[in-house]
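go over both lines:
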Amino acid sequence: MSIKTLNQYIDHTQLASNTKFSDIKRICNEAILYNFYAVCIPSYYINEAKKLLSHSHVKICTVIGFPLGNTPTAVKTFEAKQAIEDGADEIDMVLNIGLLKSGKLLEATQDIKSVKNAIGNHVLKVIIEISELTDTEIVQACNICLEANADFIKTSTGFSKGNATINAVKLIKKTVKNNAKIKASGGIRDYNTALDFIKAGANRIGTSSGVAIITNKENTTHNY
């Protein structure tokens, strides 16, 4: 795969709690320079990113119910609607893992459906946080996402005890087939690792190491 092709897999990410306006300016400028598919940022900064990216094709992605996923559905729905109104193109929401583990699958499904209904045709990615799930629960989570018409299954927030794994991406792909896309995120910091995840079935890579991946240089600054 060429570098020119790989760059369109990357959601260039800045989600740390200490994110500053200068960080948003940096990643937006990097996304334009390297022609990344999107930036993934906290919702507070959408308006700033929209201005910075106004003359580019780079999309704006933000996170909802992040990073734990256990806020009420009404809160997630409000967050998502507000983000779209502010200019977000895509929403990455966190699955309510507690509902899944409690066997409340209908409630977990409705949580996702409510957000999807609120954002209409905009892309919805559901973060299932694979490090918190067994393989059986990963399959359950995937089926919930399909039932709720999610566009992507996303592996991880990058803020839990584990990151994306090749085995999990393969399991997700086996479960969803071509009925949803896959975003691998967390711990993907170099060119070869990104390629491995794409070969395993990932359609998008969430990383704060986008520049390092594209330039094939070590990233010593960012850890997402």
